[in-house]
Design a protein that fits this description.
Length: about 475
Amino acid sequence: MVNKPAKERHQFRCDECGHAAGKWLGRCPECQAWGSLLEQGAQPGLAQLTPGRVSAPAQPIEDIDAAVARSHPTGATEFDRVLGGGLVPGAVVLLAGEPGVGKSTLLLSVAERYAAGGRPALIITGEESAAQVRLRAARTGAMHPDLYLAAETDLGALLSHVDAVEPGLLVVDSVQTIGSPLIEGSVGGVSQVRATTSALIAVAKRRNISVLLVGHVTKDGAIAGPRTLEHLVDIVLHFEGERHSNLRLLRAVKNRYGPADEVGCFELHDSGIRGLEDPSGLFLSRGDITVPGTCVTVTMEGRRPLVTEVQALVTRSASPRRAVSGLDAARVAMVLAIVERRGGVKLADNDVFTATVGGVRVTEPAADLALALAVASAAADVAVPPGLVAIGEVGLAGEIRPVSGVGRRVTEAVRLGFDRALVPVGCGPCPDAIGVTEVGNLTAALFALRPSARPQLRSAPIHSA
């Protein structure tokens, strides 16, 4: 009996999202794009796979030198904070963000500071000409003799520049603009982006250089290209900020060499970008007069506490509506329902506007109590006592739930001059320089808005830090 050769299996892959299918489909079942599935050719079998040459013999783990994996500061303090101390030689970092948020300006500043440290840095730009980047560098003061610049979109030419300059840091702006005629698909497509990233990762590991890749984002905020791109790189960063605000936040989404929940704060100006080591003052009103409808809380951005002011405006209306800025709309709607049902504050016939100060976005539940007090304060036209911060999550039953890091939050409030804090019951030790009041439910917290009841508040024992 003659064995027939196995039938070749062809695979179709979506050029938009990378989804693989066994047969051609007019519409991708994953991203719903039309006409995006392209044939990838026959998939070779692995039955006859034989052992191959190893790159290096296996060693006892105690004999492996860990010094090569230690981070080196770039000189940009806030950038280094997010990375966990600096760049690791051989690491590949993917930086994503919306158009115009300042990604290129940030990496230009980082490259200049890196070059000032004594090792050459190379920037490959595929979106702008070299002259355009040169003008931005002159405007922002990011000029250094060891900072090299080239405008290329071909992967082979990029690798030639790396051979010629031998940089310690390579910046590619952006990875979606780099391609090779040896790879199927259009530049920016799944195949090109995957192959380009794989080639740059191989160069980074072989030459022991750090690589910073700029990535585009889609209209819903996700990184453009195949999802495997985020798995290939070592660190994924998101650079975000409002167009009408100078504040920019750099968040670590994935980090193989450090914390994955750290946040760096920057301020973007025409003259460049600078890190903000103490950004808490940006999120508070400048006025000294207490106004109804404002309450201060302390949020945690990564491991950094930020004192943030929440504002609310309640006004009677024939057709009530809700407007939110800087807060999670779904969570605001829930807190408003709790304030009305559990706190007895009538909001059904009123417009309710809520916002944060300074353009910061607050989404964590620890700001619930401050939001509830701000809304109740605006509805009653009674100001929250000055020097008060409110920290806690509000449950559907009106209970105040504990949150993490209350001690660090209260310590930050003390540093900025606050002298009283409303916190959940059982929050743990707090600094002795502030009066701490533990509240178990929303009704107890609302007593803070009643002048006659303020002296009767039951204070929790004050612990030393």
